[in-house]
C-alpha cells in the first residue's frame, strides 16, 4: 500500500492538473476543510421524436376505392341489422322517445346524431326525380348521402336543395339538406341555431 505522503502528493498533483486555475493554497484549503467531489456531466439524451403515422390522402383513398361498396354488397337486406342498431342507438340517445318528450329536444339530438343506418325519404326536392327515394343511409359525406333502396339500388342523393324525413317510433323529423352540408364528424360538434330561414 502507498504511504500517506505519496497519497497526498498524488491527490495534490491530480487536483492541480484538473483545476489549473486554482492556487496551491486553495487546493490545500479544499483538502483540509471539505471532501472533493469529482463532478461528472453525463451527455443529455436527445429524445427521439415519434413519427406521426400519416393517413392516406384523398387521392390515395380514391385510388384504393376504400369507400366504394362492392356491387355484390349492395343489397337492402344486408343492412337491415344496421338499421335496427341505429334505432336502438337513437332510443338510448333520446332516452326512449317517450310520447311526452319535447320535440325540439329530440330534434336537437338528431341534428348531431350519426345517421348511418337511418331510413330516410326524400320528401321535397328542386329535382323531381329525387322525390320519393327511400332507403337506408350507408354513407354520409359533406355534400351527399349514399342510400340503398329496397330495390337493391345504391342512390347518391345530394343534400343541397333536398328535404329528407326520417321516422322512428311515431316521431317524424325533417332534415333540410341545405343546412346539413357538413361531415358527420363535424356536425357532432356544431352548434345549430334554433331559428333560421328554412328553404330548399
Proportion of beta-strand residues? 15-25%
Regarding quaternary structure, what we see is: single chain
Topology as H/E string? HHHHHEEEEEEH
Distance between the termini: 101 Å
Provide the low-confidence segments as ranges: none
Helix count equals 6
Secondary structure tally: strands: 6
- What would you call the structural class? alpha+beta
Main pleated-sheet profile: 6 strands, antiparallel
Q: Based on Cα principal axes, name the global outline.
A: elongated
Would you tell me the overall average pLDDT? Answer: 82
What is the third-level CATH name, the topology of the domain at 70-189? SH3 type barrels
Strand line-up across the major sheet: 4-3-2-1-5-6
Q: Could you say what the CATH architecture of the domain at 70-189 is?
A: Roll
Helix percent band: 25-40%
The CATH superfamily name of the domain at 70-189 is Ribonuclease P/MRP, subunit p29
CATH class of the domain at 70-189: Mainly Beta
Radius of gyration: 37 Å
Pfam families: RNase_P-MRP_p29
Family: Belongs to the eukaryotic/archaeal RNase P protein component 1 family.
Subcellular location: Nucleus, Nucleolus
GO cellular component, one term: ribonuclease MRP complex
Amino acid at each position: 500500500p502507498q504511504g500517506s505522503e505519496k497519497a497526498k502528493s498524488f491527490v495534490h498533483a491530480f487536483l492541480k492538473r484538473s483545476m489549473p486555475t486554482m492556487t496551491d493554497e486553495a487546493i490545500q484549503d479544499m483538502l483540509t476543510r471539505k471532501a472533493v467531489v469529482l463532478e461528472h456531466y453525463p451527455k443529455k439524451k436527445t429524445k427521439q421524436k415519434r413519427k406521426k403515422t400519416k393517413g392516406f390522402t384523398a387521392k390515395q383513398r380514391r385510388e384504393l376505392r376504400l369507400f366504394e361498396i362492392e356491387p355484390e354488397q349492395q343489397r337492402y337486406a344486408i343492412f337491415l341489422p344496421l338499421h335496427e342498431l341505429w334505432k336502438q342507438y337513437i332510443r338510448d340517445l333520446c332516452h326512449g322517445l317517450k310520447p311526452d318528450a319535447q320535440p325540439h329536444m329530440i330534434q336537437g339530438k338528431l341534428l348531431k346524431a350519426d345517421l348511418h343506418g337511418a331510413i330516410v325519404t326524400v320528401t321535397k326536392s328542386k329535382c323531381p326525380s329525387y322525390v320519393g327515394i327511400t332507403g337506408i343511409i350507408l354513407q354520409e359525406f359533406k355534400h351527399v348521402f349514399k342510400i340503398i333502396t329496397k330495390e337493391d339500388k345504391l342512390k347518391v342523393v345530394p343534400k343541397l336543395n333536398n328535404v329528407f324525413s326520417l321516422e322512428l317510433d311515431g316521431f317524424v323529423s325533417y332534415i333540410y339538406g341545405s343546412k346539413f352540408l357538413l361531415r358527420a364528424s363535424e356536425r357532432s360538434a356544431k352548434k345549430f341555431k334554433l331559428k333560421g330561414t328554412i328553404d330548399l
